[in-house]
């Protein structure tokens, strides 16, 4: 099937919004050293831009969880493929995710990380697709609320393709 990419959010708009999020998060974490937990692989580009827009010092770590694989429909099964390197005890943890869709992944991750006794635990997501929620989930910080499109670019992929695109694009004709 022929694929088509339409720009949904361009690079400049993303950059402005990430800078805003950076200011908001820096204000909220004044005097603290948050640990940013990036969810591999989609959140890598967002995390690297976000951390450079923060004025508070941060540490970073990464987790990998099972995702959709070759289908764009959520299986509802979340599995940890790569865990964090260090303990979260007493830390101010900020989970950095690319997109909240059904909410299953972050719902699971938030509960899992909360059980590791952090001092605080919040979530920042670049994108939110509330129309597809299967469990109730609200991120503490959100870049953009978007309609129910399958999006790629700015770190997000389809079968490992398109992550390098600077804009967030709607992928049509390849998602099923
Ligand atoms: P959830 O568990 O909230 O359904 O799904 C979250 C994960 O699904 C995201 O981290 C991402 O990997 C994947 N996902 C959901 N919607 C999209 C989308 O529109 N584009 C891409 N590339 N991945 C998505």
Structure description:
The protein is of the alpha/beta class. It has one domain: Rossmann fold. Helix content is 22%, strand content 30%. The strands form two sheets. Strands 4-3-2-5-6-7 form a six-stranded mixed beta sheet, sandwiched between helices. The protein has a three-stranded antiparallel beta sheet with strand order 1-9-8. Helix 3 (104-114) links the parallel strand 5 (92-100) and strand 6. Helix 1 crosses helix 2 (44-52). The radius of gyration is 16 Å and the shape is globular. Bound molecules: guanosine-5'-monophosphate (5GP). Guanosine-5'-monophosphate binds next to strand 5, helix 3 and strand 8.
Relevant terms:
single chain; alpha/beta; Rossmann fold; six-stranded mixed β-sheet; 3 helices; 9 strands; 30% strand
Taken together, the total number of domains comes to 1
Q: What is the mean pLDDT? A: 93
What's the Cα radius of gyration?
Answer: 16 Å
What's the story with the biggest beta sheet?
A: 6 strands, mixed
Low-confidence stretches: none
The quaternary organization reads as single chain
Q: What is the strand arrangement across the widest sheet? A: 4-3-2-5-6-7
CATH topology: Rossmann fold
First-last Cα distance: 10 Å
CATH class category = Alpha Beta
| Overall outline | globular
SSE string: EHEHEEEHEEEE
Unique bound compounds: guanosine-5'-monophosphate
Helical content stands at 10-25%
How many individual β-strands? 9
Identify the CATH architecture: 3-Layer(aba) Sandwich
By helix and strand content, what is the structural category? alpha/beta
